[in-house]
Q: What sequence folds into this?
């Protein structure tokens, strides 16, 4: 009689966990891809840990705080490593609705991943989409800051060049008028002082090399 | 150093001497010498040439660097590697070098010689050759104006990418998430993240050229910055340009060398290099290879825009422009080849990366479908395992089979891209997979900016030199104001390219604004110098100017070969346009995530016609105008050429 009950129970439990059964989820692990040489082998102890993590996630759901490890059933473990699991209620006759399991796993996905040193891509729960990490959007986009800096530098440099150009222009405009004064004075000097005569060629003045300024005594009239 | 003793004056005054009295070697000790407007002269200036001396390059090296930074531009980086790939890799170098020697060097020497001889911008230079020909100069200015308007938009895009390179992760390496954060945006999934960033985030492109959309403020800001930078560099004429060209000519080589070292050490780079350099000799028989080589040399050197004439006009008359022409053309071509080595090592890396990703996807698919052990399937045993699975589980295999892609390294390498697609999509895709991708991205876009701004210096010089040479305009406005107005006008028109359909208009300008017109301009230039002005007359001018006799080779090229070559190119392009019938363009389809071909609407075709006509018609119209004005003034002495 007891043996019959036992077989009945395992049969029912086997029925509950089947590929594509109602409320069953397929899990796929890629341990070697994630860890390379440090990959651990998938054995029954790892399965126990997995059941514990699922039970832990379910216990966080209101009304399901009494979920035990034995309520989580695994089946069809392949070499891949992939398997199916269901979570049963305390009576062990029905499986918990998929929606509850889904939300529980989503809430604790990070903890489950970390327990196995895996991430969302290497520990996949098919039919449970993972929430992707939102992009970190700073309040002011970075590019505007850099743009502002470079724009200000270029603007300031342009202004400086323009202003110095205007100053040079003014100095040049003053320059010829100064030259004219000097030339007039030169002419006056020649006529008044009747000093050293400038060459009667069409020239307004002469350029004096400073090195010879002191030797003006040598400049005799032609 | 003794002063010439003819002129002597009141000794304790410093006065200025004009003409013969100018000191030979030493600097002016101070004071207000008229000659201080230019740089210290190398020999006594001729009397009577003292009104307003033309600004000169401080050293001939500045002139060479200016020509190099103008000629070495974005075309060397994104057009030449594409042509190399299309026409059989190593064997493309044969028509390229032949065209360089036969077409590039002679035409470059011609333009530099004309500019140096006439010492004026393009309009004045051609007026000096023959009064009926100032239309050629006007056409050059018009084409340069179009070029300036659209070329700086590339710099704006380079700035945009540069500013976005300071983020981790790079914004074009990941797709943004969709509304409820369960997946990526659909357009990004269908295309790739780099394409999405280019088409959606940068251009915000519309589905067709008819839907213009609004001006996008982000690219508009970058365009304003780009024009401000160009204005800063050309503000003071050769004084400022001469300093800037040291950077724009030399720094890109530094970046290219760094990239070469990085590129050659990338995984899979050798695949790209082997692919590029294996010559496919049968391509030599393809006339398209020769035509493309001729076109590439022609446009890469920037002939016909008037920039080379403008640069050469600031030279000393005794400058040896023959040597400089040879140097500049050789450096330009070597840079193209060097840049294509870098590009192909990056191509090889990208192709290998994509090939391996494709293989990994197939491996993952098979591993998941058949629950094989993780890590069992590798690239080496993939084929055998596939065969085994096909035989062991035929039904399941046939279910999975349609999803298995055929990964091929050759097909990855064969995706040849040119233009903005290469620079902003393919390269960024390769960069995002490198380690420390932010650094490589910043370096790369900085190099693009240097190349682009170097070319812009030449483009703006082509417009500004004739304007500042003209007495009418330069008497009213100082040089800075003229430059500012030109930059402002170009910036305002350039806002057209920042609209949503702006990229399509950019392609129109890129393909049609300069191509036919330039061929015509350079043809008229060569024919004018050789036959209108007279080759022997030009030869004696050059000899008097530089002191060297003209080699027979140049005479043969100018007189015969180059004009024939240009005529054949011209005929080819015309017939190509006529045969293809309607002109088409590539539009981005957001729903499919790829480019589709569409026909140009009538108003776009009208714009294309206007672009080509407005520059080519200048030549006959101005000639006609000069003829009419001369006829009207019949009786007055004809103006001396």
A:
């Amino acid at each position: 009689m007891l043996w019959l009950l036992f077989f009945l129970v395992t049969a029912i439990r086997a029925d509950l966990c089947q590929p594509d059964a109602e409320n069953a989820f397929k899990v796929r692990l890629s341990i070697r891809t994630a860890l390379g040489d440090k990959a651990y082998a998938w054995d029954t102890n790892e399965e126990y840990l997995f059941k514990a993590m699922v039970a832990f996630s379910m216990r966080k759901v209101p009304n399901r705080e009494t979920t035990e490890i034995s309520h989580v059933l695994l089946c069809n473990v392949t070499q891949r490593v992939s398997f199916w699991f269901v979570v049963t209620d305390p009576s062990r006759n029905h499986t918990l609705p998929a929606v509850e399991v889904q939300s529980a796993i989503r809430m604790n996905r990070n903890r489950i991943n970390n327990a196995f040193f895996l991430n969302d891509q290497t520990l996949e729960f098919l039919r449970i989409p993972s929430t992707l990490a939102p992009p970190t959007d700073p309040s002011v986009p970075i590019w505007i800051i850099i743009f502002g800096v470079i724009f200000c530098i270029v603007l300031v440099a342009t202004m400086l060049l323009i202003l110095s150009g205007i100053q040079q222009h003014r100095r040049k405009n003053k320059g010829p008028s100064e030259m004219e004064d000097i030339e007039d004075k030169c002419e006056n000097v020649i006529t008044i002082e009747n000093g050293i005569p400038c060459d009667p060629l069409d020239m307004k003045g002469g350029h004096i090399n400073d090195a010879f300024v002191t030797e003006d005594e040598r400049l005799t009239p032609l | 150093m003794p002063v010439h003793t003819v002129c002597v004056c009141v000794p304790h005054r410093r006065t200025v001497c004009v003409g013969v009295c100018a000191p030979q070697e030493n600097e002016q000790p101070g004071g207000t010498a008229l000659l201080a407007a230019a740089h210290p002269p190398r020999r006594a200036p001729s009397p009577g040439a003292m009104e307003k001396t033309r600004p000169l390059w401080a050293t001939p090296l500045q002139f060479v660097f200016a020509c190099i930074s103008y000629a070495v531009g974005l075309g060397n980086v994104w057009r030449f590697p594409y042509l190399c790939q299309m026409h059989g890799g190593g064997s493309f170098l044969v028509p390229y070098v032949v065209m360089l020697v036969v077409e590039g060097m002679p035409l470059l020497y011609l333009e530099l010689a004309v500019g140096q001889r006439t010492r004026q911008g393009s309009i004045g230079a051609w007026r000096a050759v023959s009064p009926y020909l100032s239309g050629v100069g006007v056409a050059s200015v018009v084409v340069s104006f179009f070029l300036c308007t659209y070329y700086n938009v590339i710099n704006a895009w380079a700035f945009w990418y540069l500013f976005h390179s300071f983020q981790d992760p790079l914004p074009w390496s990941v797709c943004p998430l969709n509304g409820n954060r369960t997946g990526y945006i659909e357009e990004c999934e269908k295309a790739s993240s780099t394409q999405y960033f280019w088409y959606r985030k940068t251009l915000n492109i519309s589905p067709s050229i008819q839907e213009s959309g609004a001006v996008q403020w982000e690219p508009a800001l970058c365009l304003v910055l780009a024009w401000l930078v160009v204005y800063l560099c050309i503000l003071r004429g050769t004084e400022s340009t001469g300093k800037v060209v040291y950077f724009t000519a030399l720094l890109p080589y530094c970046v290219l060398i760094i990239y070469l070292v990085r590129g050659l050490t990338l995984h899979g780079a050798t695949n790209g290099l082997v692919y590029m350099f294996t010559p496919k000799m049968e391509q030599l028989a393809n006339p398209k290879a020769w035509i493309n080589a001729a076109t590439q040399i022609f446009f890469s050197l920037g002939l016909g825009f008037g920039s080379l004439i403008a640069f050469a006009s600031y030279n000393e008359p005794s400058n040896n422009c023959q040597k400089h022409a040879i140097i500049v053309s050789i450096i330009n071509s070597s840079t193209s080849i060097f840049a294509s080595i870098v590009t192909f090592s990056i191509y090889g890396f990208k192709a290998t990366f994509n090939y391996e990703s494709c293989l990994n996807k197939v491996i993952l698919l098979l591993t998941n479908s058949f629950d094989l052990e993780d890590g069992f399937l590798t690239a080496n045993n993939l084929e055998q395992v596939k065969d085994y699975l096909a035989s062991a589980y035929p039904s399941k295999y046939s279910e999975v089979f349609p999803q298995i892609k055929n990964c091929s390294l050759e097909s990855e390498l064969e995706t040849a891209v040119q233009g903005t697609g290469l620079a902003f999509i393919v390269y960024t895709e390769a960069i995002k997979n490198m380690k420390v991708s932010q650094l490589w991205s910043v370096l790369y876009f900085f190099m693009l900016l240097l190349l682009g701004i170097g070319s812009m210096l030449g483009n703006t010089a082509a417009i500004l030199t004739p304007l500042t040479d003209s007495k009418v305009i330069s008497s009213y406005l100082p040089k800075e104001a003229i430059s500012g107005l030109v930059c402002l006008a170009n910036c305002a028109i350039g806002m057209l390219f920042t609209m949503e359909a702006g990229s399509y208009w950019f392609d129109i300008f890129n393909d049609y604004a300069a191509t036919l017109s330039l061929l015509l301009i350079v043809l008229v230039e060569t024919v004018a110098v050789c036959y209108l002005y007279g080759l022997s007359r030009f030869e004696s001018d050059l000899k008097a100017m530089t002191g060297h006799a003209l080699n027979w080779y140049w005479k043969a090229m100018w007189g015969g070969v180059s004009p024939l070559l240009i005529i054949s190119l011209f005929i080819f392009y015309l017939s190509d346009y006529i045969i293809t019938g309607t002109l088409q363009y590539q539009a981005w389809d957001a729903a499919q995530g790829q480019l589709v071909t569409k026909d140009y609407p009538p108003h776009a075709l009208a714009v294309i016609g206007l672009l080509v006509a407005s520059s080519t018609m200048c030549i006959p119209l101005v000639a006609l105008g000069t003829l009419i004005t001369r006829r009207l003034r019949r009786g007055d002495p004809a103006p001396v050429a």
